[in-house]
Structure formats: structure tokens, C-alpha cells
Specification:
Blueprint lengths: L1 H15 L32 E7 L2 E7 L6 E8 L4 E7 L7 E6 L2 E6 L1 E3 L8 E7 L3 H9 L1 E6 L2 E6 L5 H11 L1
Antiparallel strand pairs: 1-2, 2-3, 3-4, 4-8, 5-6, 5-9, 7-8, 9-10
Length: about 170
């Protein structure tokens, strides 16, 4: 059943973001600069943002570039479930981990790598509750850091879209 949920939510995400065969990330340094406190938000990338999709009881929050194959991370859930499905393009090293940070909180979610028509090395799929501190900070601050084999990429909501994050987590419960 979880695979069906992932497929349905992935289709919902793909309805607005045109996904292709690869993804790219602009990687930031692995440490916060001394003038940025954990509660400070880094700057958003001009053409990347969080997109929210809600259809019936399903919701998806995806970070990437609208109408492109550039999707870095997707979170999906059913209304009130308190559970998330996390997706990201897999690295060439095949590590089945989604390592996130926000405002000084970090969490590693171990899952599995599955083949994907969208991404060259497949995709990492993991599950998590909505309650870890990293997600609570994300809700409050509007940004997540994604660590992978290439380093750390910051996924920052633009001011006009920060409400999408809270709406997503309110939907998920």
C-alpha cells in the first residue's frame, strides 16, 4: 500500500513540476558561516522554491524549479496521518539516507534506493513522523538543508511561499 501512496503522490507532484531524467543541486558549504545563527534563514535561490500540491487527502511539498527536471526533495503525506514519505534523487554511491538540517537541528532518515525513470541513480525513499525537531524548525524557519555526497544544499522558501510549509504540515497532522 505504501508504494501505491508514493506513486499517487509522485503523480500529484509531477502534475505541476515537469520532472525529467536528472536533477541538479547548487551545493552550499557544509558549515554555517559565522554571521548566520541557526535561527537565521539563508537566502532563497531565485528560481527554486517549495511547491505545495493538495488533492483530496494527499499532499506533497516539493523543492525545485517550477516546470523543470530540477527537483531536490519531496515530502508527501495523507491528511492527519502524522507520517511523511520522503524522496530525493539517489547519489552514485547508493547510500539510502536522507540527511536534513534546519536551524541547528539535524536528522538522518534511512530508507532504500529504488530504480527511477526520473533520476539516473534511482531515488532514495524514506519514511518519518512529522514530529522530529528538524521538521519543527523547518516549519518555523522556512528552510531545510539537504546533505548528500556532494555536500549541503539549502532549500529556502521565498517570503511569498513560506505559508506553504505550514499548510503542508497542518494537512499531515
Amino acid at each position: 500500500m505504501r508504494a501505491t501512496i508514493r506513486l499517487e503522490i509522485a503523480a500529484l507532484t509531477a502534475a505541476t513540476l515537469t520532472l525529467g531524467a536528472c536533477a541538479s543541486m547548487e551545493v552550499a558549504p557544509t558549515a554555517l558561516s559565522p554571521d548566520i545563527s541557526p535561527d537565521s534563514a539563508p537566502r532563497p535561490i531565485e528560481d527554486h522554491d517549495w511547491a505545495l500540491f493538495i488533492e483530496d487527502d494527499q499532499a506533497s511539498l516539493a523543492y525545485g524549479r517550477d516546470e523543470s527536471d530540477d527537483v531536490w526533495l519531496s515530502l508527501a503525506c495523507y491528511r492527519g496521518s502524522g507520517r511523511l514519505d520522503l524522496f530525493r534523487p539517489a547519489d552514485a554511491d547508493g547510500q539510502p539516507v536522507i540527511y536534513l538540517e534546519s536551524g541547528g537541528e539535524t536528522e538522518r532518515f534511512t530508507g532504500k534506493v529504488e530504480p527511477s525513470e526520473l533520476f539516473e541513480h534511482g531515488e532514495v525513499l524514506a519514511e518519518a513522523p512529522t514530529t522530529p525537531p528538524v521538521f519543527q524548525r523547518f516549519r518555523r524557519l522556512g528552510w531545510l538543508g539537504l546533505h548528500d555526497a556532494e555536500g549541503r544544499a539549502l532549500m529556502v522558501a521565498h517570503p511569498a511561499s513560506t505559508d506553504r510549509i505550514e499548510r503542508f504540515f497542518a494537512h499531515c497532522g
